[in-house]
């Protein structure tokens, strides 16, 4: 293998980020010919094709290109850390912190995390992306995210994990539901009612699989990508839903109320976890994000049932 340069890696990543050599060259303030030459030299150095040119003049990575891109982003990130540390002092935490978070977990973790870094570590630029577990973990694998918060039961193989908080499934019912005052509920007690679930893969698949493993065929109605919509539907007595992280309030968007009751069935253990690139020691800012998230989740009681203590 021939030698390649950091500059070639930068241009390669820029092409992937912008979708074409032309756009990458423009953003990098170089000529298209220079960008094309850098990519060709990189492909020659590693001995494989890294990009596929499509008919629409867009470029997409080959399998080898996808693998290299993830490593290139980590290498460039470490180089950036060295540069910022030298410029600002090694003791000061700084740099980019790119976080992915499942939409159902985000309200629990992200506001406090953003406030913590904004007030305590202003030299760290925090950005976050909400989405489904699969796409966020793919972002970690590809190097576009530094970490992602997902549920352990939805974590992919091949990524490192750090547990943030254990969670316990709870049924969401209308506040006036006959079972709303119970200490716990078996899934069989609501099997004849509509299940109104979060429409984000693999959430529906996981929940329906959980119910079927308990011998119940769920009656799915009105799936929604918006948890507040689900809460309002449930509050009107139209069905039930599930949560892993219990909100601090039972009041819905339209000023109705729901109740949360732990599921009594034996279910697989689950937790909120931070997934990380495999085999790489995380930067201090990532370690701090995990440390604070654990502390914040413990204080707020993420995933607790009513009456439990942190």
UniProtKB/TrEMBL annotation:
Q: Which residues form the signal peptide?
A: none
GO CC, sorted alphabetically, is: protein-DNA complex
Stored SUPFAM superfamilies: Periplasmic binding protein-like II (SSF53850), Winged helix' DNA-binding domain (SSF46785)
| The keyword Secreted is assigned to this record | no
In this protein, which residues make up the domain named HTH lysR-type?
4-62
Q: One GO molecular function term?
A: DNA binding
Superkingdom of the source? Answer: Bacteria
Annotated keywords: DNA-binding, Transcription, Transcription regulation
This protein's name = LysR family transcriptional regulator
Q: State the organism of origin.
A: Arthrobacter mobilis
């Amino acid at each position: 293998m021939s030698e390649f340069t950091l500059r070639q890696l930068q241009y390669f990543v820029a092409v992937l980020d912008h979708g074409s050599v032309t756009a990458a060259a423009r953003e990098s303030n170089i000529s298209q010919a220079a960008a094309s030459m850098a990519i060709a030299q990189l492909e020659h150095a590693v001995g494989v094709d890294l990009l596929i040119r499509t008919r629409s003049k867009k470029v997409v990575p080959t399998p080898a290109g996808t693998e290299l891109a993830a490593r290139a982003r980590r290498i460039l990130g470490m180089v950036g850390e060295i540069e910022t540390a030298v410029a600002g002092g090694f003791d000061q935490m700084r740099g980019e912190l790119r976080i992915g978070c499942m939409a159902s977990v985000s309200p629990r973790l992200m506001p406090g995390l953003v406030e913590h870094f904004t007030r305590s570590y202003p030299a760290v630029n925090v950005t976050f992306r909400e989405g489904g577990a699969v796409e966020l973990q793919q972002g970690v694998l590809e190097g576009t995210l530094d970490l992602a918060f997902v549920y352990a039961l939805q974590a992919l193989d091949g990524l490192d994990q750090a547990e943030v908080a254990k969670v316990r499934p709870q049924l969401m019912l209308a506040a006036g539901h006959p079972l709303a005052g119970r200490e716990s509920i078996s899934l069989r007690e609501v099997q004849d009612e509509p299940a109104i679930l979060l429409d984000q893969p693999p959430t529906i698949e996981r929940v329906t699989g959980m119910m079927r493993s308990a011998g119940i065929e769920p009656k799915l109605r009105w799936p929604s990508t918006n948890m507040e919509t689900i809460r309002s539907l449930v509050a009107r007595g139209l069905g039930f839903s599930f949560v892993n992280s219990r909100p601090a309030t039972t009041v819905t968007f339209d000023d109705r109320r729901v109740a949360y009751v732990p599921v009594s069935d034996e279910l697989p253990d689950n937790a909120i976890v931070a997934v990380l690139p495999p085999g790489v020691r995380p930067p201090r800012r990532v370690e701090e994000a995990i440390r604070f998230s654990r502390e914040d989740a413990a204080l707020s009681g993420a995933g607790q049932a009513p009456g439990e203590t942190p």
